[in-house]
Amino acid sequence: MAKTKGFGLLTGGPGRGKTTAVRNWAAALNPSLYKVVYSCLSTLTVSDFYRSLVESLGGQPSFRKPDNFRSIQEEVSRLCLEKKKTPVIIIDEANYIGNAILNDLKLLFNFEMDSRDRAVVLLCGLGQLNNTLRLSVHEPLRQRLLMNFHMEGMTKEEGRTFIQAKLDGAGCSHAVFDEGATEAILNASDGTPRVLNRLCCQSLLCADAKKLDLVDADTVMQAINDCELG
Questions:
Q1: Strands 86-91 and 34-39, how do they pair?
Q2: What angle do CA 125, 26, 85 make, to 5 degrees?
Q3: pLDDT tens across 151-161, in order?
Q4: pTM score
Q5: d(CA 187, CA 183)
Q6: Mean pLDDT of the chain
Q7: In what order do the strands lie in the sheet with 6-12?
Q8: Is 29 helix (H, G, I), strand (E, B) or coil?
Q9: CATH class assigned to 156-226
């Protein structure tokens, strides 16, 4: 997307790692070639959204929507044509965006009679964002999506790798979870990184309270109950 420009959509369930994935992707972009603008203020009014975007792009916000609309297009064009930088607009929690903002996005990033894309606009949110964009009123925006990716949960093998990576990062050189404990954590987390991480931490706390050197399945079940996941 960084090279092609245009609109992209990234969806996934809560805790699936959308924001982490986007953050890592944005961090890898060359700051000499890209200007990243991140916003998670998806419940703003249209006017507030415009003002926030103008300011993030380096412009001077106005109180009038038409002025801010023009400023956004001018700042995007200035970055693209003069600075030779591609604006990358990341809108997180976009499933909370109102229809009014979604309706304006296609117009806002329409350049040279809709013949050229000068920015990357990435919408990130829960799966219902896809359902919203399937509404006929948003069909023009949906047709402009160059990327539409839904993040599924991790497989068990990926979950095991995730746990081991966390342990390695903590400098752990010995076994911490027995096979039954690992399997219980993977089953309860349903492939969601945030839940998996939380269960591992809670299991370690429970094991420490019981003076265990190795976390077993019973300890994980206690952790699941403590986390109210049972």
A1: parallel
A2: 115
A3: 999 999 999 99
A4: 0.85
A5: 6
A6: 91
A7: 34-39, 86-91, 120-125, 6-12, 145-151
A8: coil
A9: mainly alpha
pLDDT digits (tens, 9 = 90+) for 124-182: 999 999 999 999 999 989 999 999 999 999 999 999 999 999 999 999 988 999 999 99
Phi, psi of 185 (to 5 degrees): -65, -45
Tokens of 82: 């003069």
Token readout for 86 is 């591609």
- Residue 21 contacts residue 149 (beta carbons within 8 Å): no
Tell how strand 6-12 and strand 145-151 pair up.
parallel
| Torsion angle of the four alpha carbons 125, 128, 132, 135, in this order, in degrees rounded to the nearest 10 | 150
Q: Per the CATH hierarchy, to which homologous superfamily does domain 6-151 belong? A: P-loop containing nucleotide triphosphate hydrolases (3.40.50.300)
Please tell me the distance from the alpha carbon of residue 1 to that of residue 143, in angstroms, as a whole number: 15
Which amino acid, one-letter code, is at 221? Answer: M
In DSSP notation, 112-181 reads TTTTB--SEEEEEE-THHHHHHTSGGGHHHHTTEEEEEEEPPPPHHHHHHHHHHHHHHTT--S--B-HHH
- Domain extent listing, the chain: 6-151, 156-226
Number of other CB atoms surrounding residue 61 within 10 Å:
17
CA 152-196-215 angle, to 5 degrees, is: 145
Q: What is the pLDDT of residues 44-100, one digit of tens each?
A: 788 888 999 999 999 999 989 999 999 999 999 999 999 999 999 999 999 998 898
